[in-house]
């Protein structure tokens, strides 16, 4: 295992290079990230034999990926921000055609006002498009998740597209340490691609994407997608454990940190989970009973396991890097509150919205959130569930 | 978090602050340390004030926010001193290293730095004499090594040689090595 200094974008591009899929389609202009740029360089340098399709929009990037995957090729693309938004309608089609496309997403804000910085509005907005969603904290997790995504997507009990997230700029543009596998280790872990009903198998012709109207099977088809999500729950764990044997870095749906005797706990996703872990460790040294749950798998959402991990916690603070306008809270919060509804005793839940448009989240902001959780645990009435961290109030 | 060393770089676009933050990270890699290097993201315009950050530690680093309370501040351009508060967030005893041919007390319009440890190094002069370009980043890395003791000079020399030899001629590599060594030698203050 080699160690190197590399950006989050570089780490993810390297993972893709080591897998060396058959086809990458990508929009080559901003808001695209260096992941697509680096991969294009690998192709140009002859480091990979991947067919690279530079397309005229992100809608076309996903359309080309769908065509390629339906034809029978192991296919990837990459996106971020407005590009993700432009792919929107095709994301649903990729999932409903059960095409195991994988796609790193560098999570960034959506306009307007125009803003290029980190938040989760793009990927969280796409949480119901039928893709598996896996979030990473740092460049290492971005690399590791990008590799595991192929095994999860292509598993015969799953066959769903997988997107793996890293935080825009905070991780994608920062240089950090990365432990890499050798190319042959990655290729062996991922294995050979097996196409299902490929269009290019002319001996066995199939129709892809036909009309399925009022008296058709649309409803049953949608249920089958959800069953594949159920299957993915176990496959993600199996693949994560196997990857752990190879690398010493096992993965599951989430990481429970110091929850065993915690009275209050934070739930976070993405890079902020690292900031929160650092604060939790510091507060633990001062004797405060606080824990952290870092979410990795958001779709399928491991609701039951998360409820078990948080059992006994009196007040749970959920940190959201995107808002859901007019809802009871951000996407992670509403998911968590639903997951914990059946818990006995049911914990109090507070939501902390932070970091929109790249607004920094400092350790002090997280300490403030924990202090509010502790006041609520001590019996102080906290009227509303939604709070904002590091918000400039006039 | 006590064991994390936090460095903030102030420069103008084009002076190589991001490269310096990155090179420091690569030196840390070669020393088997943990590290993080990142710019404050924004429009990158040549000549405009920019900020970059480096964190170093013997333990994994899991804070990703901007550095609020740097232990070391490196100022690549002394004309920034009356434009940007380079001491923002620094505590007593923080080390400030400024690219200047003059001692700090001789710099006109200098802000008050009572309680800070202030050093200067003629980094632009060294850069012009060695690499023949006004890019003061490598002499400042040498100065940082001398003042902080974070890395041995040999460690930086080896790393700069390894990383630059892939892309540049021996002449360019040697000029940069000379710049690092002179920064290490010529930094003064306190």
Brief descriptors of the model:
heterodimer; A: 394 residues; alpha/beta; Rossmann fold; 2 domains; 6-stranded mixed beta sheet; 12 helices; 16 strands; globular; B: 190 residues; Pyruvate-ferredoxin Oxidoreductase, domain 3; 5 helices
Describe this structure in words.
With 394 residues, chain A is α/β, with parallel strands linked by helices. Chain A has helices at residues 8-19, 34-44, 58-71, 81-96, 121-125, 139-154, 183-190, 218-247, 272-285, 303-309, 331-339, 363-377; strands spanning 2-7, 23-26, 51-54, 75-76, 79-80, 102-107, 132-135, 162-167, 175-180, 254-257, 264-269, 290-295, 297-299, 315-320, 348-353, 386-388. Chain A is globular. In chain A, 51% of the residues are buried. The model of chain A has no long low-confidence stretch (mean pLDDT 97). Chain B has 5 helices and 7 strands. Chain B has helices spanning 17-30, 123-130, 137-148, 153-165, 170-186; strands spanning 5-12, 34-39, 49-57, 72-75, 95-99, 117-121, 188-189. Chain B has a 7-stranded mixed β-sheet, covered by helices on one side. The model of chain B has no long low-confidence stretch (mean pLDDT 93). Chain A binds chain B through residues 3-5, 116-117, 137-138, 167, 169-171, 173-177, 271-272, 274-275, 277-278, 282, 358, 360-364, and chain B through 1, 21-22, 25-26, 28-29, 34-39, 41, 61-66, 68.
Number of helices of chain B: 5
The CATH C-level class name of the largest domain in chain A? Alpha Beta
Number of strands of chain B: 7
Q: In CATH, what is the homologous superfamily of chain B?
A: Pyruvate-ferredoxin oxidoreductase, PFOR, domain III
What does the secondary structure layout of this molecule look like, with pairings?
The complex is a heterodimer of chains A (394) and B (190).
Chain A: E1 2-7, H1 8-19, E2 23-26, H2 34-44, E3 51-54, H3 58-71, E4 75-76, E5 79-80, H4 81-96, E6 102-107, H5 121-125, E7 132-135, H6 139-154, E8 162-167, E9 175-180, H7 183-190, H8 218-247, E10 254-257, E11 264-269, H9 272-285, E12 290-295, E13 297-299, H10 303-309, E14 315-320, H11 331-339, E15 348-353, H12 363-377, E16 386-388
Parallel strand pairs in A: 2-3, 2-4, 5-6, 6-8, 7-8, 11-12, 11-14, 14-15, 15-16
Antiparallel strand pairs in A: 1-9, 7-13, 10-12
Chain B: E1 5-12, H1 17-30, E2 34-39, E3 49-57, E4 72-75, E5 95-99, E6 117-121, H2 123-130, H3 137-148, H4 153-165, H5 170-186, E7 188-189
Parallel strand pairs in B: 1-4, 4-5, 5-6
Antiparallel strand pairs in B: 1-3, 2-3, 6-7
Helix pairs in contact in B: 1-3, 1-4, 2-3, 2-5, 3-5, 4-5
């Amino acid at each position: 295992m080699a160690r190197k200094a590399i950006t989050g974008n570089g780490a993810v591009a390297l993972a893709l290079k080591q897998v060396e899929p058959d086809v990458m389609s990508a929009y080559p202009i901003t808001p695209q990230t260096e992941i697509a740029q680096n991969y294009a360089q690998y192709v140009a340098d002859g480091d990979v034999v991947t067919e690279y399709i530079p397309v005229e929009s992100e809608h076309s990037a996903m359309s080309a990926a769908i065509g390629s995957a339906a034809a029978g090729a192991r296919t990837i693309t990459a996106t971020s921000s407005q590009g993700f938004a432009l792919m929107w309608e095709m994301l649903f089609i990729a999932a409903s055609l059960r095409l195991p496309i994988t796609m790193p997403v560098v999570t960034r804000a959506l306009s307007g006002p125009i803003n290029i910085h980190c938040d989760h509005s793009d990927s969280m907005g796409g949480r119901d498009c039928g893709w598996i969603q896996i979030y990473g904290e740092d460049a290492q997790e971005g690399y590791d998740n990008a590799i595991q995504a192929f095994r999860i997507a292509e598993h015969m009990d799953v066959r769903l597209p997988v997107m793996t997230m890293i935080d825009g700029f905070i991780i994608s543009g920062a240089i950090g340490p990365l432990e890499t596998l050798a190319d042959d280790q990655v290729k062996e872990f991922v294995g050979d691609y097996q196409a299902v009903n490929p269009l290019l198998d002319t001996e066995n012709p199939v129709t892809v994407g036909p009309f399925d109207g009022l008296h058709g099977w649309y409803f049953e088809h949608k249920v089958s997608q959800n069953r594949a999500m159920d299957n993915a729950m176990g496959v993600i764990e199996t693949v994560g454990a196997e990857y752990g044997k190879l690398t010493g870095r096992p993965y599951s749906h989430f990481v429970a940190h110091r929850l065993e005797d915690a009275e209050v706990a934070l739930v976070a996703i993405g890079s902020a989970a690292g900031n929160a872990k650092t604060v939790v460790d510091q507060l633990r040294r001062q004797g405060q009973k606080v824990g952290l749950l870092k979410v990795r798998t958001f779709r399928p959402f491991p609701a039951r396991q998360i409820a078990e991990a948080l059992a006994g916690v009196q007040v749970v603070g959920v940190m959201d890097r995107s808002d859901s306008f007019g809802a009871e809270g951000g996407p992670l919060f509403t998911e968590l509150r639903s997951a914990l509804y059946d818990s006995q005793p049911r914990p109090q839940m507070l939501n902390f919205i932070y970091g929109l448009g790249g607004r920094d989240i400092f350790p002090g902001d997280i300490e403030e959130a924990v202090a509010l959780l502790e006041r609520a645990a001590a019996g102080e009435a906290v009227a509303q569930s939604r709070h904002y961290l590091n918000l400039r109030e006039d | 978090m006590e064991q994390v060393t936090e460095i903030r770089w102030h420069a103008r676009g084009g002076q190589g602050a991001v490269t310096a933050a990155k090179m420091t990270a690569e030196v840390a890699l070669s020393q088997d340390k943990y590290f993080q290097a990142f710019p404050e993201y924004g429009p990158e315009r040549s000549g405009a004030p920019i900020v970059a950050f480096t964190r170093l530690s013997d333990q994994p680093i899991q804070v990703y926010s901007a550095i609020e309370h740097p232990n070391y501040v490196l100022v690549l351009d002394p004309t920034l001193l009356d434009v940007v508060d380079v001491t923002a967030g620094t505590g007593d005893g923080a080390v400030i290293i400024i690219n200047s041919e003059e001692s700090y007390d001789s710099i006109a319009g200098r802000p008050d730095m009572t309680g800070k440890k202030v050093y200067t190094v003629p980094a632009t002069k060294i850069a012009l004499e060695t690499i023949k370009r006004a890019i003061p980043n490598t002499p400042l890395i040498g100065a940082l090594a001398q003042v902080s003791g974070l890395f041995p000079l040999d460690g930086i020399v080896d790393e700069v040689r390894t990383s630059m030899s892939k892309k540049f001629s021996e002449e360019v590599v040697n000029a940069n090595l000379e710049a690092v060594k002179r920064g290490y030698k010529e930094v003064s203050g306190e």
